[in-house]
Records
---
Amino acid sequence: MGAAEPVVERENETEADVRERDDAKKEDSEVKDLEKGEVGFEERVIYSSSNANNDGVDDVHNNNHQEFQLSRFNRLNPTNPLRIVLNNNTRVAAPSPVQSQRSQPQSQSQSQSQPRSTPTPQQQQPVTLNSRKYTNRISLFLFILHMCLAVALACFLVFKGVQGLIQSSESMKRKEKRVLKYFLPQVEAATLMSIILAFTWQGAIRKWPTFMVHFILWCTFLMSLAAGILLVCLQMPPTDGLGVCFIAFAIGNGLYACWVSHRIKFCCKVFSLSLQPMSKFRDLNRPTYIMLGVGFVWISLWSLAVIGALNFYFPPLIIIALVLSLAWTTEVMRNVVNITVSRVIALYYLRGMQSSTQFCFLRALTRNLGSACLGSVFVPTIEALRVVARALNLLEGEDEFMFCCAHCCLRVMETIFRNGNSWAYVQIAAYGKGFVNASQDTWALFEKEEMEPVVDADITSSICFLTGVCSGSICVIVVAAWTYTVHRTFTATISLLTFFIGYLLTRIAMAVPHACVSCYYVCYAENPENRLFDKTIKDRQALLKSARDEIVPTPRVHRTRRS
């Protein structure tokens, strides 16, 4: 037995020597293969590491052997095919369970450091809140061109007016002096009165939103009715026609106030909630002050240009062109205020930021001015046609032709409204989108959150519109009585003009609460889980879905079969 032990030791030594010689041969051959750039290195490394679990001595030897091979591998040229293949992880032999457990942390670190070779879907670029591109450049160019022509025409007409006072005949001089005496003071007074009324309405809505919604609905009814009755009582054909229009509008306004009575409570609540962030921005009204100041100066120059047009060719056409220019300019001013306030309030809702009002105002005057110009042309037109289409839909009865026309017009206007609406100004201000894209994206948000019935039934825009009508009616009452006592023939013309000025300037100031309400709806649709919003809109949606809200259906005339 004692003699057998040395034999076993010698056999073990022989086997170890054999393994060492075999490993040395393999090492030499693998070094040659590495220099040649062959691909079989990785498989042999894994195979040798799997066989290294037989005993502790072999494990240590094979680990040293593997480290030597890896050191050889690290010396390879980066352009060597073997290293390229291994870096790309394209050929890997099936590892043993032990090797897979050991190589798992290493593979995870490699997967984190090295990009995957499999194609991954491209992620959408995050929407930036600081877009530097100019939106709707064609509209911006047209508006700037229009303003250059309007200023040049106004200056030229003022020159013609002064020339007429100096060099024209006595009859022309008397005519221009009469217009200056009995036309210009009334227009300037109406402009100042409109600015005062505009700030009065805005301040009252901020303090007492619930009361003012009811007050505006019925005060507009009374003021427009009073203006119409006053003009009819003047007993002149032009004032009679104008007075009938005011009375007809007052009747429609009263019917509308009764029809939307079930929506007033929700509108008051939205007004109260949406106006709360205004207290955090003390200078939020500064753009309104600037725009109304510029509006006063421009209307003064515009009035002198109207007087000068009387001493030039085709006075009616020139005055109509000046009126259209004034309407577009003041509407752009209103939308500039709207975009400025929308950006300040939207960034507060979306990011919790307190932005600089001055920076937002400069941005609205530069990068987003094209969208304001385009929206100023299309939004009033689209909304007016939409109201007409809805009126036709209400009035259609047994007439099949009227039925088809009403529904066709309504569907067309609904389609157009998706591509151009006043809700778009929020995304124009926040993300710098174009007018059409912003309209489509905003309406898609409403559809996603099932908010179309809620926003479609909103009466905020109607309240702002009626506020402008109320201011215009008050101006008509004051100016018509004044002009009738000093120069009767100008009564109808000046009354119509002062109503127009009062409406436009009041709408500029009312753009601030309108923008706050728009931001409340649009930002809620973008992130309903925002902590700044409560359950007001959710409760409204639940009421509409459960049919517990008193929604007035579209009246239809039932068809009777004739025997």
---
Amino acid sequence: MSLEHDGLESDLPEHVWRINLDTPEEAQQNLSFGAADRWWEQTDLTKLILASNKLQSLSEDVQLLPALTMLDVHDNQLTSLPSALGQLENLQKLDVSHNKLRSLPEELLQLPRLRSLLVQHNELSQLPEGLGQLLSLEELDVSNNQLTAIPTSFALLVNLVRLNLACNQLKELPADLSAMKSLRQLDCTKNYLETVPPKLATMASLEQLYLRKNKLRSLPELPSCKLLKELHAGENQIEILNAESLKQLSSLCVLELRDNKIKAVPEEITVLQKLERLDLANNDISRLPYTLGNLPQLKFLALEGNPLRTIRRDLLQKGTQELLKYLRSKIQDDGPGPNEEPPVTAMTLPSQSKVNIHAITTLKLLEYSDKQAAEIPEAVFDAVGANPVATVNFSKNQLKEIPPRLVELKDSVCDVSLGFNKISSISSELCLLQKLTHLDLRNNFLTTLPEEMEALKRLHTINLAYNRFKVFPSVLYHLPALENILLSNNQVGSIDPVQLKGLDKLGTLDLQNNDLLHVPPELGNCENLRSLLLEGNPFRTPRAAVLAKGTAALSG
């Protein structure tokens, strides 16, 4: 028998706890029930659902329900749990998620049949040291708490299938987790992990591993995880994809590595013959191995936000199948391999650097990046001739100013990348590029933007991360087409929500790691703002918990 109660009450009527003891009212009124109809004598309460009320406490009388197999009190206002829970020896599922618990009672460890324990979204800073005594546990969710460490006794949970540690404050994982031989899903999203213990590689049953939003610098070595189907490691600091690491992941179907710092994709990625989804968006990849086109199961390939030299932006927008077809066609060409120099349809400059004429004529791309050059050679611009150029990439040089001859491309250029230079001010030449839609100025020395930039009416993405802005550039408020403003890792102290509301197409505003002391609640009125990133600011308001809930919560 099960009982569900959702009356939005802060205390539970006593008769709920006594349901197994007291004769029901209808029996007292009518004594002619046959044996088959006397349900209250045959069935003890096994499921009790008290979710989404306003319960502030749970009575010790819960012990009067010894037959309970499931107790669900999620989404209440509980600050503690009764020790009497330990007497519910038949309990198999306990859901106390979305409450205000600061600790779990030791008596909880006396539940021999407990298979599912859900304690996510509470205020736990530690777990009982003896949690490993719950030997029957198959599912444990402790996500969205304030945990800084995992009890070593976790190693005893050999029947655990799903473990969720996401959104805590873990700096390391205990190597003993490797003893969890049944574990199929491990979620460590959004912690502070810099490495993954090598011993974790022995978790032979692991199928899904989530490591997003940590501080990893490399892909973990997982030689024994032969069943691993999904590896999610986006939003880390991974720079190199180790070929050996990839070779060990032969069963992988999903590899998610977006928003890292990966510079190259090794040929060995083609050993992932079962790969269906590959997400490499927002990295520093300039070339792809053409053999990627031969992955037989690949249905989704994300590459946007990379400085790709050999693939046009419009080709990226045509979807995965067109992209794979293009890569396959390049394998058959007699051209060079993907890690060699571009085709020798190039003119040699005095500096022995090359201008890729082929890229200019077929890809509409003018590139002179990663040369550490103090200025762009005249021959680079001379090579353009009458060809229309849509994309300019002068990133990773030593430029101190905007190249004056950029203005020659004003009739066609729409995407300019000048990131990773030493530019300290924006000259008027840039403001004449009125077809500009993408402008990347990250990692420079900028402190202001000129008001003349107001002429860039088509600009919809601007990346100003890692500069020296102390004030939100006011000209941005006057660029109506803006969809993405990326201003992380500056020193911006305030924003004007009223002017921001005028940017009715703005979907992403990244102000992470700035000096904002407060977030104006009026930001909640920016209805199209889907992604508001504010982590790493010295806020007084709102609370971090509100920020974690996203943009919608700010307007609540």
---
Amino acid sequence: MAVTDAQNPLLGETTCGTLLQKLQEIWDEVGESDEDRDKMLIQIEQECLDVYKKKVEQATKSRAQLLEALSDARIELARLLSALGEKCFAGFPEKASGTIKEQLAAIAPILEQLWEQKAERVKEFSDVQTQIQKICGEIAGNLNINDNPTVDDADLSLKKLDEYHAQLQELQKEKSDRLHKVLEFVSCVHDLCAVLGMDFFSTVTDVHPSLNDSTGMQSISNDTLARLAKTVLALKEEKKQRLHKLQELANQLMDLWNLMDTPMEERKLFDHVTRNMLASVDEVTVPKALALDLIEQAEVEVERLDLLKASRMKEIAFKKQAELEEIYAHAHVEIAPDVAREKIMALIDSGNVEPAELLADMDNQISRAKEEGLSRKEILDKVEKWMSACEEESWLEDYNRDENRYNASRGAHLNLKRAEKARILVNKIPALVDTLVAKTRAWEEDRGIQFAYDGVPLLAMLDEYAMLRQEREEEKQRMRDQKKFHEQQSTEQEASFGSRPSPARQVSTKKVAGSRANGGANGTPSRRLSLNAHQNGSRSATKDGRRDNRLSGPAGPVNYVSISKDDAASHVSGTDTATASP
């Protein structure tokens, strides 16, 4: 074998055969015995065997290491696939094939790729968990969370990552809702502080320092939301109380201004107070509309006006008394104003009554007087119609008595139209009187008191008017009969003695003028009825004069005075003279 190797021309390098050949040449030259040569060859063969054994052992050990590395690689591959939630890796065969090194060469890039994928997945998990931890901390009220979350690398599957993402989305939505609530509360606090004139920043900072706009993160914890809600409720209650207080002060100011006739220039100084008199809590949005200094200013003004009112108490009381008298005068209710004013003076001078109580009592009297005037209004309106109809009746009597009423003088056509309307109105007087009597009796039965018109019982006035109207009709009938009788006498005289002028016609004219001056000869009622038949004693000239004036309250039909029997006879006599003349 060695000779063959030595003779091999293809071997250009030193081989075992060439070395053995060289060794034999040396032995031949030295003259080594065959025994020594065999020993030497045996030794060489043993040494060669030892080297092979050593190499085999090394190879075996290397193979074992490669198998262990392959096993570890396969285990790592399985672990990575499990952690990443993958069943297998695309392109990698499930069954082993090829040499160990080929298998290791095939699995190595897969592991590298999976490690990179794991690192990216860990980063994704870390980011999601960091955000979840941060939001949870914000909800819990812990804004200073700096610890990085621990990622469980045993489960890095996409399913687990999706669960974390879903949790993150829910937390983000909750955070958004909470942040929206916080912003609503903060905005409400801002508006309320503006209306109340309070410092907004100090108010929200007391709730939580992060609510200040200068900070980058705002607390959305349950505690912050609860404290914000409590702050808003407290501010709303404060706004409600201040508005109520301000409205009370505004009402007091208005009452005092009206009471003392305060000029508009002074009232305008407190427009910011009175403009919210009727406003609701939600309608008040003007900044500083309910500031404490504004309320204090209104309180000071009310105190000042109260002091001023006390000093002007008599003037104010007399003003209310004048208002009361005006109401009663308009309602034609007779009162004793002088006595009332003396009583007011005595009460104020004595100091036994509080000014506010006195004014309140007078306000009650004014309210009762208005109610009484309202209950009398319908009857008083009909009384005015009745008196106006009586005035037209009186004018119609005078118009019918005028012998020149049909002459073509200036304004004759207007008088003619008025006479036509007056006749229609006069025909309605009986029905008007009946209605007035019925309503007056119903009013008296309802209230149990007598209906007086400027101190005179209205039913008595109506009864007397009806009686006098009847007497007037009877008197007219007598005058017509008497005139007919005198005309017949005059006709007989003319037939016996002839016609001659009558000297009595001038006297007749004077009588007619006198009767017009008296205003009662025609039987038409006047503004002041004489009620001596119904009253005990006569009334004073002052009261009669006041009732004669229609503006201060007429008390009876127009142009009527009582006609005694002597006056009626005199009027009839004068008429007879006038009618007897041919």
---
Amino acid sequence: MGCDGRVSGLLRRNLQPTLTYWSVFFSFGLCIAFLGPTLLDLRCQTHSSLPQISWVFFSQQLCLLLGSALGGVFKRTLAQSLWALFTSSLAISLVFAVIPFCRDVKVLASVMALAGLAMGCIDTVANMQLVRMYQKDSAVFLQVLHFFVGFGALLSPLIADPFLSEANCLPANSTANATSRSHLFHVSRVLGQHHVEAKPWSNQTFPGPPPKDGAGTRVSYAFWIMALINLPVPMAVLMLLSKERLLTCCPQRRPLLLSADELALETQPPEKEDPSSLPPKFQSHPGHEDLFSCCQRKNLRGAPYSFFAIHITAALVLFMTDGLTGAYSAFVYSYAVEKPLSVGHKVAGYLPSLFWGFITLGRLLSIPISSRMKPATMVFINVVGVVVTFLVLLIFSYNVVFLFVGTASLGLFLSSTFPSMLAYTEDSLQYKGCATTVLVTGAGVGEMVLQMLVGSIFQAQGSYSFLVCGVIFGCLAFTFYILLLFFHRMHPELPSVPTQDRSIGMENAESYQR
């Protein structure tokens, strides 16, 4: 009760900045999940093929990684952090507003690259500021922070669903041949049928742009609604800037200190500071450096081969699982409207929301479960669950009910894989390696590469290949995890890590989950 009362007191004293940081992560979630259900409408809008539109995912994920690194530049002062959050959240609203006017896939990819930079900056800055405010008590606030990611990702497909096109995406006055081709495109949606079209969509001659009131442009209203919903977020950051007297129009009457710094000065007992007592993100920890600095450390020269093998195999597991998360959320809508399922567009639009909803639920459930179960066991259950779920979806590929149940199951199993793997790897290396840096990089690259790969295979082989890819990537993740267990057994034993340090590592792992 004393601890709960102290945390409640901290929240009351830092209520406005805490709500602001939570709200910017809502923007992050809103922007991460809307591409999947709107993919086919955006294809009609940009007259592009599936491999071409897949570059939009690639540009977003690549710039998200770059934005995460860029966000570290703005974390030094409160003023820089808040202005970075204001700019990033405002940029997301602008991106939503501009997307309906992107008639070329290259322009759309550039706009989504800007959104990726903004999302990466939000990811780094909001996490750092919350930890800086609450320090040892930051774990519960970080969990809520990442809950807002799932909430935003759950909401955006629901907003888009009423505006998804059910009818012809070509103009009504097109020729009979064009009408027939378009009808086949929207009814069968079998992208790999070479007898239907030998040329990619981008090379077709369209009679003109879709009409203003046509089905091809109705999704524009969804983007504008999301832009309006997100608009209060930069306004909230602006209000916090005003409260902290960081606006140029406000006189600076006091030093620019974080409210958490003032709170620490008031409540901290006068004792000598121990670096080991600092939160994980403020300790001098090699695993939290950038990738280049981590790989250049001189103390890695004498490390055994198992040390490097653990880093590589753990990164490959997350390469597969995080890549599956991105690819499934991006293409499950396209898969559902294809044969053999031929699910209606409105019904299929709920699949990304269901997926992200169960990811959010899984993240909440993993909090109490992780205190009773070892990270290695959680990862094993998650990876096996992913493989089994894809196998069931493949066997019952003609059953719509199994698609919805399997989507929910995948969301649960994939939700806690990242933090559990990170905690297990850090624990295996006794917090002396570069696990955090390597694993975060591997997961980000996996999201980029697998989305591009699945999109290309989907286009060439048809919708059935979507589930086959899931089974293959899931089996690869399981294989890499077995190799990780083997290399962990081969790794030289070191003095055991205290339970308190291990729990801190798990909390830190959760803070990196997207």
